[in-house]
Specification:
Zincin-like, 309 residues, 3 domains, alpha+beta, four-stranded mixed beta sheet
């Protein structure tokens, strides 16, 4: 669960959900205020505009939330940053200076010797030579040659100081000081459970409706059929639309784009003017594709049940 909380997809999904909740709430509330909440404004708005405004409010939040989160757009009024990863603390790391390899020392060439003095003793002669830098030696000259005897040890050449390697600047790292919070994963889990329950309920309603409409039959009675064909001709509808009836239906409904189902009692008992109005109303739903929009609204309501409006 902790690893899931730190996953980037969890953060992105949670950010998208909260963004959608805010955007859709603003859009739905704004359309409601325009079309219902403010009477002077609502009276000036026609049915066509209201219909399009509600459709925009239905899908607008999905589009704006996807654009903002997908493109990383920052809102003009700011954003709320939610901490979904482990708390981090700055830790300064000082690199250790490693000494550089000591450069090789070149041999020091002896300087020309300076004769400082001589002493004769029989066939031998002692000469004192000074080479500088505190280095002196005595040369004993006899009949067979010369012998060298150092008077003072040569000073060891002073090696160059060991140069330290360049020390890079201190590096600041982030070290976790606490576990990642669990609430992002818990929220997504609650959303998954709620969505699953809502979708199962929606599918159950669809199956129930299909069972109730299983025994429907085509309407062949006049004047209902004649009125229906007249309405289709007046609306210049060229596609074939079925008119059916069912005993297990309480009110008329429009199914997708090609069928209208009415209760059998309405066909038998309603007067022709009332039946004409009912059929005209359902045809208008088909032309506006309202069944498709209602199905989309039901799916969105199931997926985003947390939407307050």
């Amino acid at each position: 669960m902790i690893a899931l909380s730190q996953h980037p997809l969890v953060t992105t999904a949670l950010s998208w959900m909260l963004t959608y909740a805010i955007h859709s709430t603003i859009l739905i509330l704004g359309v409601w205020l325009l079309c219902r909440g403010i009477p002077p404004v609502a009276r000036r708005i026609g049915p066509r505009f209201e219909n399009r405004a509600w459709k925009l409010a239905l899908v607008g939040g999905l589009l704006t939330a996807s654009v903002q989160v997908g493109l990383g757009v920052r809102p003009a009024f700011g954003a709320v940053e939610l901490e979904t990863g482990p708390e981090m603390a700055e830790r300064s790391v000082q690199p250790v200076a490693t000494p550089a390899a000591a450069p090789a020392l070149a041999p020091v060439a002896p300087e020309p010797a300076t004769l400082r003095g001589r002493v004769r003793h029989g066939q031998r002669e002692l000469r004192l030579y000074d080479h500088g830098n505190g280095h002196s030696e005595v040369v004993v000259i006899s009949g067979g040659g010369s012998l060298l005897a150092p008077v003072a040890p040569a000073a060891a050449p002073i090696a160059a100081p060991i140069a330290a390697a360049p020390v890079p600047p201190a590096v600041t790292k982030l070290a976790p000081v606490g576990p990642a919070p669990l609430w992002p994963a818990l929220i997504l889990l609650a959303w998954a459970v709620g969505t699953t329950w809502a979708l199962v309920r929606l599918l159950s309603c669809v199956r129930t409706l299909r069972r109730r409409l299983k025994d429907r039959s085509t309407v062949l009675e006049d004047p209902v059929l004649e009125s229906f064909l007249f309405l289709c001709s007046e609306a210049e509808i060229n596609r074939k639309i079925r008119l059916t009836q069912s005993d297990r239906l309480a009110s008329p409904i429009a199914l997708w784009r090609r069928e209208i189902v009415v209760p059998r009692r309405a066909v038998e008992e309603l007067p022709p003017p009332a039946m004409h109005a009912v059929l005209a109303h359902e045809l208008a739903h088909l032309e506006r594709r309202d069944p498709h929009w209602l199905a989309l609204a039901a799916v969105i309501e199931a997926l985003f049940f947390f939407q307050p409006l």
